[in-house]
Design brief:
This protein is α+β, with helices and mostly antiparallel strands. It has one helix at 9-17, and strands spanning 25-30, 34-39, 46-50. The chain has a 3-stranded antiparallel beta sheet, with no helix packed on it. The mean pLDDT is 92.
């Protein structure tokens, strides 16, 4: 499982604007092009949000 960190308030708002529940996702990579998420409970499920 990829380790991730809990999103801060600004990141949570960005995730919520893209139709994803931020309570269920961790951020494992945050670049200037995209934010990469990993599911908090499943672990293997990932998601990429372009900025």
């Amino acid at each position: 499982m990829k380790s991730g960190k809990k999103p801060n308030k600004k990141q949570s708002i960005f995730i919520k604007e893209n139709g994803i529940n931020p309570d269920n996702w961790f951020i494992y990579k945050n670049t200037s092009e995209a934010m990469h998420l990993v599911h908090r409970y499943v672990g293997k499920r990932t998601h990429k949000i372009p900025k």
